[in-house]
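Hi C.,

You asked whether I'd gotten around to modeling the 348-residue construct. I have! Everything is below, sequence then structure, no commentary in between.
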Amino acid sequence: MAPAPRIAPKLAVVTVNYRTADLAIRCVEALAAERETAGPFDLFIVDGNSGDGSVEKLAAHFGQPPWSDWVTVLPLALNGGFGWANNQAMLRLLQRDDPPDYIHLINPDAIVEPGAIAALLSVIESDPKIGGVGSQLLEPDGRIAGSAFRFPSPGREFLHGVGLGRLGAWIGVKPILMEFAAPGPAEWITGASMMFRSTALRQAGLFDDGFFLYFEEVELMHRLTDAGWALWSVPASRVTHIGGAATGVASGIQAAVRPLPAYRYEARRRYFVRANGIAGLVAANLAWLAGRLIGFPVRLLRGKADPAPPREFSMMLRHSFWPSRRDARASIPRWDEPPGRPPAWLAK
């Protein structure tokens, strides 16, 4: 009797590891139970040239059945950044003879609660115009973390510079954070746990690999929105996120553990140029600077701490104010492009 034909999974999951093999193992082990409720799916663990034995550890752990039936370890020759590493797996998936309908990206320092993947699938399958969905992140202590947002804008940069969030209600600028009790449309969703419709990625392209880290998911979702796709937050999909495990830079309530690196400010600069042009970057920077100048005496009188210490101020001026020629050049791979092209941010 001939074996039954393989049923192509409608979903694939990708996680990018960089020197966090133990966390990646824990992340995948939590995902294993989701295959019972969300249906079978394949999973890529992409290693960004960790050089610390991660590849060997992951291959040894997942190299035998039943793991090897659905888990693939993909070692890369360089640490090309978050977007580029995810692209290497997504290109391979989209070029399969039986490509998945949806691709879920999850950080290795994230642990799904039961039903998290099924909740995302339920929403993205409910409307063909939804191009992506995101989970509700939780802090390690169980508190709700920011997971759905509005796009950065000059008005929001002004509020960031001032450091007084309540001022937004007085001047008609909505906060960047969006909160949901039920599934609903957001402008962009957290990069720590996000699921994309493959059709949307084929249309809009994958991550712009001119970004090393930070803002790459915001830029991709800006493109998806421009192409007519909706993005939804799904609070029933709950994911605990450690944050900063690979970079050493914490996120959410855990922030302020370390100062932000230069590439974060460079990514902000590139985002504004790519999304809004050089004029958009200039407007955002002038708004931030005006907020700083206005907010300083107000905070001083109210005894409030400065939200942007001197180092952050100098980093903004050095790395985020003056656009480079490369900022305006897109580097967005098409879904049918051969994998392996080095990321644009490496070019001099």
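If it helps when you're writing up: The first helix runs from residue 21 to 32.

Thanks,
B.
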